[in-house]
Amino acid sequence: MRFSRPLSQAGHLTVALRDLDPAGNSLERLKRMLQESTGVISAYVSSSTEVVYIIYDPLLTSPEALRQIIQKAEVQTEEWPRRFY
């Protein structure tokens, strides 16, 4: 997705994951689902740190919408972040 405004205006979300599939199937599914979602500029899923880093356009999506995508991917998260930047 192209982001036409300064990247400083993008939303950033970091979510800790847990109980990951050892084969990595759930992480690949999560990454694909996020990258195909409207408003997601970038999604990086780290299996070594068990964290997903998402940069998104806050005019097109929200942290709650991203949370729903993560749930649909059947990936468990630690406590959901209370602050977003």
Describe the structure.
The protein is α+β, with helices and mostly antiparallel strands. A hairpin with a 4-residue loop joins strand 2 and strand 3 (51-56). The model has no long low-confidence stretch (mean pLDDT 86). The protein contains 2 helices and 4 strands. It has one domain: Alpha-Beta Plaits. Strands 2-3-1-4 form a 4-stranded antiparallel beta sheet.
List the helices and strands and how they pair.
Layout: E1 11-18, H1 25-35, E2 40-46, E3 51-56, H2 63-72, E4 76-77
Antiparallel strand pairs: 1-3, 1-4, 2-3
List keywords for this structure.
single chain; 85 residues; alpha+beta; Alpha-Beta Plaits; four-stranded antiparallel β-sheet; 2 helices; elongated; HMA domain-containing protein; metal ion binding; HMA_dom; HMA_dom_sf
